[in-house]
Design brief:
InterPro entries: Pyridox_Oxase_FMN-dep, Pyridox_Oxase_N, Split_barrel_FMN-bd. It comes from Albimonas donghaensis. It is built from 8 helices and 7 strands; from the N terminus they run H-H-H-E-E-E-E-H-E-E-H-E-H-H-H. Strand 3 (64-65) and strand 4 (70-75) form a beta hairpin. The chain has a 7-stranded antiparallel sheet with strand order 2-1-5-6-7-4-3, with helices on one face. Helix content is 30%, strand content 26%. The protein is of the alpha+beta class and 200 residues long. It folds into 2 domains: 5-153, Electron Transport, Fmn-binding Protein, Chain A (Pnp Oxidase, Chain A, Roll), CATH 2.30.110.10; 163-196, no CATH class.
Length: 200
């Protein structure tokens, strides 16, 4: 097991020059355009003991820039586990990974996170006459484009590589078995129709 940075670097060597130089502390015009087109972000948090990664998604541009040094992410009704939010209250650091369907590169934004419930800020995200419960603000400390290698290897956006629908796990069966639910298995279509009623 590798236990220190020197041992790790002895195996991997130093970071490539481009990988170091591409990192900035602000959102330039390219990053702002990336946000406008992104419908999905993964939010990573850690409180020192527990780690969490939570997906957030909506229409392209649902995450808004707050100047060129911060982003705002609306939080809509969900399961109220609040794992990531509780982590942020204990350790206000978050890592964001933005995706655009079809684009193999991703945008990474790391920085200091804070949770806000004031109505003026929430009103910027009004959807279908509703406001998000809270808004997560992340002050950018590190911003950079991540290379496409993971997406090239996984062929994530290539439909020809996707698993046949009949072979996919059945979420309803997973919930039934893991939670011990009684009654018939809820099919994915019914589950998603139920979700649609409480998206906002």
């Amino acid at each position: 097991m590798i236990e220190d940075v020197d041992a790790l670097r002895a195996i991997y060597g130093p970071p490539m020059e481009r990988a170091v130089k591409k990192q900035h502390d602000r959102l330039d015009r390219h990053c702002l355009r990336f946000l406008e087109l992104s419908p999905m972000v993964m939010i990573a948090t850690c409180d020192g003991e527990r780690v969490d990664v939570s997906p957030k998604g909506d229409g392209p541009g649902f995450v808004k820039a707050d100047g060129d040094h911060a982003v705002l992410i609306p939080d809509w009704p969900g399961n109220n586990r609040l794992d990531g939010y509780e982590n942020i209250l204990r350790n206000p650091q978050a890592g964001l990974l933005f995706l655009i369907p079809g684009l193999r590169e991703t945008l990474r934004v790391n920085g200091r996170a804070s949770i806000h419930a004031d109505e003026a800020l929430r009103a910027r995200f009004e959807t279908r006459g509703r406001l998000p419960i809270t808004v997560l603000r992340v002050e950018a400390e590190e911003v950079y484009l991540h290379c496409a290698k993971a997406f090239l290897r996984s062929r994530l956006w290539d439909p020809a590589s996707w698993t046949e629908k009949a072979e996919l796990p059945r979420p309803g069966q997973m919930f039934k078995d893991q939670i011990g639910l009684e009654g018939p298995v809820e099919e994915a279509e019914a589950m998603h129709a139920r979700y649609e009623k409480t998206l906002y």
